[in-house]
Write a structure and sequence with these properties.
Chain lengths: 278, 202
């Protein structure tokens, strides 16, 4: 077993290898980590590059894959890419679920037979509250898309991102849980997490602070390099944050994986990740 | 001895160009770059620029530190090589920064002025070994292809093989840094400029 595989197996490094497929998005959420929006530079990683690195990651010992952005499904090849990744390892793809038209849903049907989950953002049980941070019509599109994905046999998780999950109104949370259950998503596939004070959230003075001491080490590959966590390659004021940059090298994956391992090994005792955000 | 071009002399107007890349402040330093940042005060522009590529930084800075830092060759000798090479290469940043270092290493103001092209090197430096070294540095920095047999003979008479190897590498590393710092337009720190002004190098 390689040193990387041992660290993954022991949980020192997350077993999931993440990819930022792109940075552009059809939405402009107020807490977006990457300042994504329709007009931003795409900084697309590339289908073939992701597949090559995912396969190398599998050989290194990673046992799961993740794809995020930007909105990954603004890329035409995303359903096919996720199918390819899902045939290699269990894969989760993060989406706002607002671009799932009938053609895209048809393209996603092959995902039904694969260990693939689409993690969809839904923050509040009422449209006006949800759409205040995520944009007009977001709520309606999500509640329409989720059942359609589930009908096709595609796994769906709901991710709720809140300013302070601990302080969330329990009645509102119960209404939200009733909603996701009614859409076909069980409680075990609902995650609630805090807004991270990076990117646009930092500009808007929202969320909790998160440096590498607070985050799980999850190797994350992007067009700009490898990062410590999927919460690392954030953008503020149009400039990429580098505080969680591991290396500019993403190929071979072994290189940033070994650098991440060195970082984790050098982690001072008692500084275990404390936010536990996934 | 080769004349240093007038334009290299520090303090000439128009020497300072815009920095080509953003300098990464401490709060944005990549994790593996952080050990190379000082606990107090700003990082050197070389560190703050190399931090864009941490895997290169963590190889480059120890390399530079080993070659330019304390070794069997004395600091005075190394600074003669560094200031002279930097002046020949017209590297404002390296000349200014190493003027201060050279003074700290015991070189006289007159010697440093001469190395910077602001005085007659052959009149200021009288030690035959240092003059042989300066001839060697001029050849390493400016010649294309092989160094002439005459300069090799003079250098090998003045220096043993280990010293010649190391000082050639000091010159070569300085050449690399000269081009790096000049091309990227790295700014000399305010503290260094203030110090130079106090020492009459403004």
């Amino acid at each position: 077993m390689s040193a990387i595989a041992e660290q993954i197996a022991s949980g020192t490094i997350s077993d999931r290898l993440w990819f930022y497929a792109n940075y552009h998005c059809n939405l402009r959420c107020t807490y977006c980590l990457t300042e994504s929006a329709p007009e931003v530079n795409r900084r697309e990683f590339g289908r073939d590059q992701i597949i090559e690195r995912a396969r190398e990651g599998k050989k290194l010992g990673f046992t799961a894959l993740g794809v995020t952005g930007g909105e990954p499904f603004t890329l035409d090849y995303m359903p096919e890419l996720i199918a390819t990744l899902g045939s290699e390892l269990p894969t989760i793809v993060l989406s706002n679920a607002t671009v799932f038209n009938s053609r895209r849903l048809r393209e996603m049907e092959p995902l039904a037979d694969l260990p693939v989950h689409v993690q969809i953002s839904l923050d509040h049980p009422e449209p006006e509250d949800n759409d205040e941070m995520r944009g007009p019509e977001n709520f309606r599109k999500v509640v329409e898309a989720v059942p359609k994905l589930i009908e096709r046999g595609i796994g769906v998780r709901i991710a709720t991102t809140l300013e302070d999950p601990e302080a969330a109104d329990p009645h509102e949370m119960e209404r939200l849980c009733e909603l996701h259950r009614s859409l076909g998503v069980p409680d075990e596939d609902h995650v609630v997490r805090p807004i991270i004070n990076r990117g646009r959230a930092q500009s808007n003075d929202m969320g909790v602070l998160a440096g590498f001491e607070q985050l799980e080490p999850e190797l994350t590959l992007t067009a700009d390099g490898a990062f410590y966590s999927p919460f690392g390659p954030t953008v503020r004021g149009g400039r990429l944050d580098t505080d969680l940059l591991v290396s500019r090298t993403t190929e071979p994956v072994r290189a940033p994986a070994e650098m991440l391992a060195r970082i984790v090994e050098g982690h001072p005792p008692g500084s275990d990740a404390s936010l536990g955000i996934r | 001895m080769t004349a240093v071009p007038t334009a290299t002399k520090v303090g000439n107007e128009g020497q300072i160009s815009a920095t080509a890349v953003a300098l990464i402040e401490a709060d944005q330093a990549p994790i593996l770059a952080r050990p190379f940042y000082p606990t107090e005060g700003p990082p050197s522009p070389i560190t703050a620029s190399l931090a864009h590529v941490p895997e290169v930084l963590e190889a480059t800075l120890p390399f530079i530190g080993r070659i330019l830092g304390p070794t069997a060759v004395g600091a005075r000798t190394k600074e003669i090589v560094i200031v002279r090479t930097s002046a020949l290469m017209e590297c404002r940043y390296c000349v200014e920064t190493h003027t201060a270092v050279a003074l700290d290493c015991g070189l006289s103001r007159e010697e440093v002025h001469a190395l910077r092209g602001e005085g007659d090197v052959e009149a200021v430096f009288t030690d035959p070994g240092e003059l042989a070294l300066l001839a060697w540095v001029d050849a390493v920095a400016l010649d294309r292809g092989a160094v002439s047999e005459a300069i090799i003979a003079r250098a090998t008479e003045a220096m043993g093989d280990p010293e010649l190897v190391e000082l050639t590498l000091v010159a070569a590393a300085t050449l690399m840094l000269n081009r790096y710092c000049s091309a990227l337009g790295l700014p000399t720190s305010a503290a260094t400029l203030s110090r130079l002004a106090e020492d009459g190098f403004g």
